[in-house]
């Protein structure tokens, strides 16, 4: 039990280190690659995420989704790339190769689609190399460059606001 507390503290320290050392360079580069981090217990609408990518004029081949999946063995995730809380080691180290590959990918946009305070989700969000990070109001606000004040179940409002702000920032192509 004590070790679990120390492990949690080391991961929170890692998150703080990542957010403090992150340098955001303002750029109007067009979004071509998107990473999405979700909690599969909170959000399981894969089709909506694909539709969002299409609305942002991003090819589905340039969309990667990573899902935290911590449920019973008989349940199946709708997402193909999953990891669990057990895949989180000390100091932000990930044991899952899927999660490591996701974190190592450079994204133009990272969308954090979760409201939980799951440490594994926060570590992945902090460690991911993305030019621009977007999240929800209820999540850790230090991880995101843009925070959309809406609930996760209000997908239409989230999509509208995301597109609006990305257009203002000149991050979307006009194709």
Characterize this entry briefly.
By secondary structure, the protein is α/β, with parallel strands linked by helices.
Brief descriptors of the model:
six-stranded parallel β-sheet; 6 strands; globular; 35% helix; 175 residues
Radius of gyration: 16 Å
Q: Give the uncertain stretches in residue-range form.
A: none
Q: What's the main sheet like?
A: 6 strands, parallel
Q: What is the end-to-end distance? A: 54 Å
How much strand content do the residues show?
15-25%
Mean pLDDT: 85
Shape: globular
N-to-C SSE string, H for helix and E for strand:
HEHEEHEHEEH
Q: Helicity, in percent? A: 25-40%
Walk across the major sheet and give the strand order. 3-2-1-4-5-6
Structural class: alpha/beta
Give me the number of helical elements: 5
Strand count = 6
How would you describe this protein?
- The protein is of the alpha/beta class and 175 residues long.
- The chain has helices at residues 2-21, 46-55, 97-104, 119-127, 155-168, and strands spanning 34-39, 63-68, 82-83, 107-113, 130-136, 146-148.
- It has a 6-stranded parallel beta sheet with strand order 3-2-1-4-5-6, sandwiched between helices.
- Helix 2 (46-55) links the parallel strand 1 (34-39) and strand 2.
- The longest helix has 20 residues, at 2-21.
């Amino acid at each position: 039990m004590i070790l679990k507390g120390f492990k949690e503290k080391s991961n929170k320290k890692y998150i703080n280190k990542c957010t403090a050392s992150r340098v955001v360079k303002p750029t109007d580069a067009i979004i071509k690659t998107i990473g999405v981090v979700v909690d599969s217990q909170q959000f399981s609408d894969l089709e909506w995420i694909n539709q969002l990518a299409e609305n942002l004029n991003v090819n589905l081949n340039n969309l990667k989704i990573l899902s935290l999946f911590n449920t019973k063995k008989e349940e199946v995730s709708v997402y193909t790339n999953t990891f669990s809380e057990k895949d989180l080691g000390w100091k932000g180290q990930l044991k899952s190769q899927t999660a490591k590959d996701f974190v190592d990918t450079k994204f133009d946009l990272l969308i954090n689609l979760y409201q939980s305070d799951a440490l594994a989700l926060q570590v992945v969000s902090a460690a991911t190399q993305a030019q621009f990070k977007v999240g929800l109001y209820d999540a850790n606000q230090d991880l995101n460059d843009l925070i959309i004040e809406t609930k996760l179940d209000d997908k239409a409002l989230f999509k509208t606001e995301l597109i609006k702000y990305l257009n203002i920032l000149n991050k979307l192509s006009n194709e």
